Structures are given as C-alpha cells and as structure tokens.
C-alpha cells in the first residue's frame, strides 16, 4: 500500500518518520479515522471539522489541512491503492513536527508531520448480528478527552484488558459513571430512554454518536445525553457501542452477564439498520470528491 507523508506518496515499507518527531517523543499530535466506501467518505465534513478543532486547540494550527489539501490527498490515495470499489478506512495524523527534544513548542515555522494512509475494511457483520461482550475498566485519561490526540495509552491499556479477557471493548468508568469505550461511544437503554454521556470534555465527540442521536430522534426513540452510572448500565435493557469501525454494535454481555435478553435489542437493531441506510445513502449520493 502507498501512503501520503509530508507531501509525497510513498510505499508504506519505505515511509519513515524522524525519531525527533513530536508524536514519537511526546504523543504531540492528533488523528482521525474515516470510513470510505466506493471511493466516497462518510460524514467527511464532520471529521474535518473535528480535526480542525483539535489542531487549533493544541495550537498545531489547522492551516496545515489546506496546505496539504487533505480531502484531495485522501481521494488520490484511495484510487492509487485500488480501494474505490469496496469498504476502506482512512487514517489521518498530524503532529507538531520534528524538533530536538524539549517539552515546550518548537518554533511555529516547524513543518508539521502529515500522514494519510488507507486500508481495506471489513464491516463487522457477524459480531453485529450476534452482539459482543464488554468489560468495564477505569477511565485513566486526561481532562480533554474531546481532543482526538494520539496520546492513547489509557485507551491501549483498556483495550488490552478487554482483549485479554476475550471481550470486544472496554467500557470506561470515571467517578462511577460510564464515559465511553476505548475506541467507541457507549449507549444504554435505561428505563425506556436511550442514554449516552454528554458531549463534554470527558469524551470524544464521536461522529457516529452524533449520527445515532439524530437517527434516534427521527425514529421517535426517547433520548437523553446524560451519564449512565455503573448500576444503570448493569440494569440496562440494551447496550450498544457506536463508532467509525464498530458501526452500531450490540453489547449482549457485560462482564459475562447477559444484557437484557442476551440477544441484540430491538432499538439497537433498529438504529443499526438506520445507520446502515444512512451510510448507504451517503455512499450512493455523495459526489466522489468531497
Ligand atoms: N476511535 N470514543 C473514542 C475514545 C474513540 O477513539 C472513537 C473512535 C470513538 C468513536 O468516534 P467516531 O464515531 O467519530 O469514530 C469514540 C477510532 C475509530 C480509532 O481510534 O480507531
């Protein structure tokens, strides 16, 4: 596969980044993961807006997005890698660039490191039809989880704890409340209302989460953006994950205990189908270049 690194398209085997890259030394960068199908992107504007927000928030500077014309780069890469027929994932990472190690920012003129890569993707159909198991794990992250930074160590540790127990995802708990998953948003049906953590600094403002909230509103499902306690999660009739790689993923087991009937719930199935339809429409209708 070819990837895009700092203005050039190169074979990934030969693409290298300096050991003085700020992301390597400090985790000083942000990233995005987008879904593509037939050469078209799902909700690209929302992903670009979130990336822009993170770059500005961290004072890396969002001008880098125009300098590199990221949407055009993504389409060029998908074509180059023969990924315009099926499903694909797009990974974008921007770091503060390469500079001798010092905690404070290097000069603002330091060229940012810009990476875009693409890969084939298989939607998780079988897991979605059976549902998955999740564990709970302490949320050990910082106070700005809304920034999609490449500092993912707490997420990595939580995901590994889940994997070690054969679970699909770790649901993170902070102060007794569910925040989100290590790499997905978390929803639960609590007393007939669909609940998810409010979009504040404790969670990533997931794009799938936002779309699911819209779809639930359209379907007349009662929704509240309000934290779910561990006790409420344990008593929820349905739980599901939402994310770019998970879609709407039913959770049928929480720490080995069946959720509701132990089968994917009705609302979960309904919203999963609605998300699929929304994606299919986006991939059919959107112009191939966004
Ligand atoms: N993760 N919460 C966290 C902590 C995430 O890392 C992600 C996405 C989500 C879902 O967000 P979205 O719907 O915008 O994909 C929620 C990506 C896919 C990843 O790190 O691979």
Q: What structural class results from the helix and strand content?
A: alpha+beta
Query: Mean pLDDT across all residues, rounded?
Result: 97
Main sheet overview: 10 strands, mixed
- Which ligands appear in the coordinates? N-(5'-phosphopyridoxyl)-D-alanine
Stretches with pLDDT under 50, minimum 5 residues? none
Q: Which outline best applies?
A: globular
**How much strand content do the residues show?**
25-35%
Number of helices: 9
Briefly say what this structure is.
The chain is of the alpha+beta class and 290 residues long. Helices cover 31% and strands 29% of the residues.
Keywords:
290 residues, alpha+beta, 10-stranded mixed sheet, 6-stranded antiparallel sheet, globular, binds N-(5'-phosphopyridoxyl)-D-alanine
Structural write-up:
The chain is an alpha+beta fold. The chain is built from nine helices and 16 strands. The chain has helices at 22-26, 44-57, 63-67, 70-80, 125-130, 153-164, 207-218, 230-235, 266-285, and strands spanning 2-5, 8-11, 29-37, 40-41, 87-95, 113-120, 132-138, 169-174, 177-181, 185-190, 193-196, 223-225, 228-229, 238-243, 247-254, 257-258. Strands 7, 8, 9, 10, 11, 12, 13, 14, 15 and 16 form a ten-stranded mixed sheet that branches. Strands 2-1-6-5-3-4 form a six-stranded antiparallel sheet. A hairpin with a 2-residue loop joins strand 8 (169-174) and strand 9 (177-181). The radius of gyration is 19 Å and the shape is globular.
């Amino acid at each position: 596969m070819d990837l895009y690194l700092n203005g050039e398209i190169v074979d990934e085997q030969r693409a290298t980044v300096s050991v003085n890259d700020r992301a390597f030394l400090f985790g000083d960068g942000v990233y995005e993961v987008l879904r593509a199908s037939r050469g078209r992107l799902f909700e690209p504007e929302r992903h670009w807006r979130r990336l822009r927000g993170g770059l500005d928030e961290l004072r890396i500077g969002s001008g880098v997005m125009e300098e590199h014309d990221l949407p055009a780069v993504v389409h060029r890469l998908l074509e180059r890698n023969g990924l315009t027929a099926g499903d694909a994932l797009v990974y974008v990472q921007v770091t503060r660039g390469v500079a001798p190690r010092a905690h404070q920012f290097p000069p603002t003129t330091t060229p940012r490191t810009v990476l875009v890569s693409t890969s084939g993707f298989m939607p998780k159909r079988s897991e979605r039809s059976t549902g998955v198991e999740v564990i709970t794990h302490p949320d050990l992250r910082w106070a700005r989880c809304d920034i999609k930074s490449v500092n993912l160590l707490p997420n990595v540790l939580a995901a590994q704890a889940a994997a070690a127990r054969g679970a699909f995802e770790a649901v993170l708990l902070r102060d007794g409340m569910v925040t989100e998953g290590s790499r997905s948003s978390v929803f639960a049906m609590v007393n007939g209302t669909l609940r998810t953590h409010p979009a504040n600094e404790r969670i990533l403002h997931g794009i799938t989460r936002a779309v699911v909230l819209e779809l639930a509103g359209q379907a007349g499902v009662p929704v509240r953006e309000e934290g779910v306690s561990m006790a409420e999660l344990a008593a929820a009739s349905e739980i599901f994950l939402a994310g770019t790689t998970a879609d709407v993923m039913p959770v049928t087991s929480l720490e080995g205990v069946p959720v509701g009937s132990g089968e994917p719930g009705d609302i979960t199935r309904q919203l999963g189908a609605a998300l699929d339809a929304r994606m299919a429409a986006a991939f059919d209708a959107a112009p191939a270049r966004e």
